[in-house]
């Protein structure tokens, strides 16, 4: 990559803190949709003891979509993290280190978001009804 | 990328420096005599704030002691059942609302600017206003118990107990008083977020900021999304208590569980809002004593942000016993387990820092270690109660009391005391006593464990919380007496701490500068400090400049960096960009004024008078408060500078006036409106909550608002929004006639919008007392109308500003911010109309 291109990629104008919170936001959307979906589903059935396999499947499928999105964001973060090699701890006063730091933090946050999403989906393996 | 600027190779001559210091001193001079109370500088307001929060902590502690005396023996009559209810309600409320949250804001207002090498926070008068609002609200609430009129519904005020069975004014005082305090908390949160994002020194890129600033950003962000649901809930409950609107009355379609959702949507994140900033203090203290940079900076950032997010997915774990479907319990149980991951990560980072560093024993580290150990115990019992089946057994017992106190005392109070010992020299240049600090620690640590360890067992044996006594002979006497003895030891520890803080220190030598040999910026401060905060604004190249930037203290002191002078005699600070902290503006900030205090008094009246059903007084007080706030803005904000730009040193010139997204005012409006939007979403959540759970919502027998009036209201409001947007452009193009005509038309349309929005439920003769559905529709209509009304005041303000020559084509921050407000109005009105008029059509 040319030095001009490099410079352009790490320029402040191309950075945003929003990338950091995207993966946790995806967890939040999945979580809230699962909660709201389950609440509506359970309120529409007459017998709370009946199995709600379809709903459980939806939550897990939607969870897989969420995980896919989190994976994409993690990959974007990973590319920033590995920008021109770069060794941690990313504490130098350069735009490149700032770029790598934001990438690394994005990867880490994607990781914890993925775990939380998997936890949500796992709970659906054990709960079979609305009781 | 900008070239790093190096400090001047040569300092200015002694004579020049003395002149600079004299001008800085004059600009930042604190008022004396009775005018001292008009000061708005962060170092003074932060000190008042912190001192007041400590007073509330002691008050809350005394209430706790009263409870422990009552429970020392079975059948005790020290407190009557009613007074006991007041005491536990006030204890919980004071500790949560008047200590745990505000201590974060107080300490941040006091120290954040110094940690970031800034002279101030961007809205000093807002800080002062927040403090006065907090003082008035806090005194009002605490005063109630002295008149035997305190709230008795527990700190979470569950209806229908609080809506139907407690007719006194206690619950009203709680609902209105805390709403007022929450407004002040949101004001402080706005200030702190903008402070972290826009007021860093040049070169302090986002990956170099102190960890404390990351935590502040997260915790203040959480306040924006956590407090509005409670404000909404309080509004609904007060509407039910005062006007009989049946939001929580099951007989008329309401549902008490909605309150629990709204309360805990606030209540659980609130625990982390209290905890995270305290961990942030630990993150500043540990590296100083380990004498090494923090291990795993980015992991701690992960921890702060991750915890901030996940903590919003836990609220239902306070409601596990309310009969919610198992699916819901499982989801929230899963989230409750997953939050342990980011919470634990930061603790491992602290351990790693100590491991790789060369630890020095000290009083602050003693409190840090004791606090974290205690917190971990609370965290582990937290994982236990996050398991729904265990929760069913432990719910409402003293086990939960023991758990939450381990978390809050370990996670908040111990770190705050550590910070008191660590930061005290920054306040008055003296060190606290090492000997007294150690004595206090062991009293506090032992007292805490003797008090709360037995509560795990009393809880598991079935002792309910919030009950004023217990019977003899069921194995509770010994454990309770032990707890009460522990509480006295704990109180003795606080007594020693208090003495250490208050004892006269005139004969003590001044603390050396940077007594702990820390590497972070706040320790630049001279002993004692100067009112200007920092002599010159440094260029930052490292996370620990005092360790890693050579001659750093000398260069700052000798004015070799930016803004070493106050040529025009004004209080000034530097505004920089969000990611890389490039200089963007020299911001002139207002100085001392009583307008903040006066505004807080009259705004306080808006919340206090309705407690006593004095609605006319409330209206008058509100009108005066509005006048005060308008005067405050008129005189103190968006002032046109005498010149366009200012040289801040090193050949860098920055504008004195900025509008739009680069300005701090724009960000403040943006952040405030995000909180406002969250409150609106909470109302909409309520609407759909009723729809989900109640098959007869909306009831077939009650006519809705129809769609004609609401849509007319929407169209008029959207037209007013579009005209405001156009008027901003006309103002910039110097088309004065178009501007006035556009704004005038916008005002007329907005007035019609208000009429049409309210006409929906009014023309349909919807009676809000009859059922929760009309109450909900009325609430949505009024919510939208009030937002449009506030928009009208802002439009008229812009017209007046332009007319008075205080707003021009170039200097247009007023209309830039008002336009941003109107974007949110458009969203709010569209949302209201979609829900109240559109949703019934879908059905």
Features:
heterodimer, A: 131 residues, mainly alpha, 4 helices, B: 843 residues, two-stranded antiparallel ribbon, 4 strands
Task: Describe the fold and architecture.
- The complex is a heterodimer of chains A (131) and B (843).
- Chain A has 131 residues and is mostly helical.
- Helix content of chain A is 73%, strand content 0%.
- Chain A has 4 helices and no strands.
- In chain A, helix 2 (18-44) packs antiparallel against helix 3 and helix 3 runs antiparallel to helix 4 (95-126).
- Chain A starts with a helix and ends in a 5-residue tail after the last helix.
- Chain B has 843 residues and is mostly helical.
- Chain B has 25 helices and 4 strands.
- The radius of gyration of chain B is 27 Å and the shape is globular.
- The termini of chain B are far apart.
- The chains are: A mainly alpha (131), B mainly alpha (843).
- At the A-B interface, helix 2 and helix 4 of A face helix 9 and helix 10 of B.
Fold blueprint:
The complex is a heterodimer of chains A (131) and B (843).
Chain A: H1 3-10, H2 18-44, H3 53-81, H4 95-126
Helix pairs in contact in A: 2-3, 2-4, 3-4
Chain B: H1 14-28, H2 42-71, H3 81-115, H4 124-144, H5 161-164, H6 170-198, H7 211-243, H8 256-290, H9 297-310, H10 326-338, H11 340-356, H12 363-386, H13 388-394, H14 398-428, H15 434-460, H16 477-502, H17 545-548, H18 552-557, E1 572-576, E2 583-588, H19 595-608, H20 615-636, E3 645-649, E4 652-655, H21 664-693, H22 708-732, H23 736-763, H24 772-803, H25 813-842
Antiparallel strand pairs in B: 1-2, 3-4
Helix pairs in contact in B: 2-3, 2-4, 2-16, 3-4, 3-6, 3-8, 4-6, 4-19, 6-7, 6-19, 6-21, 7-8, 7-9, 7-21, 8-11, 8-14, 9-11, 12-14, 12-15, 14-15, 15-16, 19-20, 21-24, 21-25, 22-23, 22-25, 23-24, 24-25
């Amino acid at each position: 990559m040319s030095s001009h291109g490099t410079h352009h990629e790490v320029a402040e104008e191309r950075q945003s803190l929003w990338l950091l919170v995207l993966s946790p936001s995806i967890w939040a959307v999945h979580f809230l949709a699962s909660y709201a979906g389950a609440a509506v589903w359970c309120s529409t059935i007459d017998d709370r003891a009946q199995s709600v396999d379809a709903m459980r499947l939806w939550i897990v499928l939607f969870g897989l979509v969420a995980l896919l999105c989190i994976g994409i964001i993690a990959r974007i973060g990973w590319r920033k993290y590995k920008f021109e090699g770069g060794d941690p701890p990313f504490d130098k006063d350069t735009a490149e280190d700032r770029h790598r730091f934001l990438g690394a933090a994005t990867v880490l946050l994607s990781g914890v978001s993925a775990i939380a999403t998997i936890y949500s989906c796992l709970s659906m393996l054990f709960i079979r009804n609305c009781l | 990328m900008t070239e790093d600027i190096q400090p001047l190779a040569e300092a200015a001559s002694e004579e020049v420096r003395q002149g600079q210091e004299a001008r800085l001193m004059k600009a930042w001079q604190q008022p004396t005599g009775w005018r001292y109370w008009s000061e708005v500088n962060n170092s003074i307001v932060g000190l008042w704030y912190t001192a007041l929060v400590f007073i509330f902590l002691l008050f809350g502690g005394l209430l706790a002691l009263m409870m422990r005396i009552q429970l020392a023996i079975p059948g005790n009559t020290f407190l009557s059942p009613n007074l006991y209810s007041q005491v536990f309600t006030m204890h919980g409320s004071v500790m949560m609302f008047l200590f745990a949250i505000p201590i974060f804001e107080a300490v941040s207002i006091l120290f954040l600017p110094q940690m970031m090498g800034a002279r101030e926070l961007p809205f000093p008068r807002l800080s002062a206003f927040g403090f006065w609002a907090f003082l008035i609200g806090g005194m009002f609430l605490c005063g109630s118990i002295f008149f035997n009129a305190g709230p008795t519904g527990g700190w979470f005020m569950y209806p229908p107990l609080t809506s139907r069975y407690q007719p006194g004014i206690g619950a009203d005082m709680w609902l209105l008083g805390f709403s007022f305090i929450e407004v002040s908390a949101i004001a402080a949160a706005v200030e702190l977020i903008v402070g972290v994002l826009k007021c860093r020194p040049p070169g302090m890129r986002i990956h170099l900021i102190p960890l404390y600033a990351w935590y502040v950003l997260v915790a203040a962000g959480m306040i924006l999304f956590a407090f509005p649901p409670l404000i909404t809930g309080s509004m609904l409950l007060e509407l039910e208590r005062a006007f009989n609107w049946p939001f929580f009355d099951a007989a008329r379609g309401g549902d008490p569980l909605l309150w629990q959702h709204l309360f805990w949507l606030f209540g659980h994140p609130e625990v982390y809002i209290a905890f995270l900033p305290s961990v942030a203090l630990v993150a500043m203290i540990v590296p100083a004593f380990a004498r090494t940079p923090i291990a795993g900076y980015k992991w701690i950032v992960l921890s702060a942000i991750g915890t901030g997010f996940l903590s919003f997915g836990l609220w239902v774990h306070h409601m596990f016993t309310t009969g919610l479907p198992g699916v819901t319990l499982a989801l929230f149980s899963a989230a409750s387990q997953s939050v342990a991951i980011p919470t634990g990560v930061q603790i491992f980072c602290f351990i790693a820092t100590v491991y790789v560093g060369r630890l020095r024993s000290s009083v602050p580290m003693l409190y840090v270690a004791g606090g974290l150990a205690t917190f971990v115990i609370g965290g582990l019992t937290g994982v236990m109660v996050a398991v729904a089946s265990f929760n069913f057994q432990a719910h409402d017992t003293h086990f939960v009391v023991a758990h939450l106190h381990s978390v809050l005392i370990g996670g908040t109070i111990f770190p705050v005391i550590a910070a008191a010992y660590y930061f005290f020299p920054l306040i008055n240049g003296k060190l606290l006593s090492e000997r007294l600090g150690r004595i206090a620690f062991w009293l506090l640590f032992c007292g805490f464990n003797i008090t709360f360890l037995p509560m795990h067992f009393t809880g598991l044996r079935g002792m309910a919380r919030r009950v004023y006594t217990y019977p003899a002979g069921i194995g509770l006497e010994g454990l309770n007496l032990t707890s009460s003895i522990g509480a006295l030891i704990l109180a003795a520890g606080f007594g020693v701490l208090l003495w250490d803080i208050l004892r006269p220190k005139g004969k003590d030598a001044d603390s050396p500068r940077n007594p702990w040999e820390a590497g972070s910026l706040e320790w630049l401060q001279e002993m004692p400090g100067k009112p200007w905060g920092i002599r010159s604004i440094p260029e930052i190249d490292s996370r620990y400049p005092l360790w890693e930037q050579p001659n750093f203290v000398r260069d700052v002191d000798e004015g070799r960096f930016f803004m070493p002078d106050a040529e025009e005699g004004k209080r000034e600070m530097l505004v920089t960009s969000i990611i890389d902290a490039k200089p963007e503006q020299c911001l002139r900030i207002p100085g001392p004024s009583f307008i903040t205090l006066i505004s807080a008094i009259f705004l306080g009246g808006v919340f206090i008078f309705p407690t006593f059903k004095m609605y006319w007084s409330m209206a008058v007080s509100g009108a005066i408060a509005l006048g005060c706030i308008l005067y405050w803005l008129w005189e103190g904000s968006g002032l046109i500078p005498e010149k366009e730009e200012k040289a801040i040193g090193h050949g860098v010139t920055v504008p004195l006036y900025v509008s739009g997204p680069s300005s701090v005012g724009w960000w403040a409006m943006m952040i405030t409106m995000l909180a406002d939007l969250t409150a609106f979403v909470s109302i909409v959540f309520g609407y759909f909550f009723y729809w989900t759970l109640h098959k007869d919502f909306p009831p077939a027998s009650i006519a809705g608002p129809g769609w004609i009036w609401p849509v007319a209201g929407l169209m008029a409001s959207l037209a007013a929004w579009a005209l405001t947007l156009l008027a901003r452009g006309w103002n910039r193009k110097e088309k004065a006639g178009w501007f006035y005509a556009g704004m005038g038309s916008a005002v007329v349309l907005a007035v019609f919008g208000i009429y049409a929005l309210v006409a929906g439920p009014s023309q349909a003769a919807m009676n809000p007392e009859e059922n929760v559905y009309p109450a909900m529709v009325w609430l949505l209509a009024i919510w939208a109308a009030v937002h449009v009304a506030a928009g009208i005041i802002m439009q008229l303000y812009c017209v007046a500003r332009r007319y008075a020559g205080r707003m021009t084509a170039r200097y247009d921050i007023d209309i830039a911010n008002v336009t941003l407000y109107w974007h949110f109005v458009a969203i709010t009105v569209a949302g209201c109309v979609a829900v109240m008029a559109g949703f019934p059509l879908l059905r």
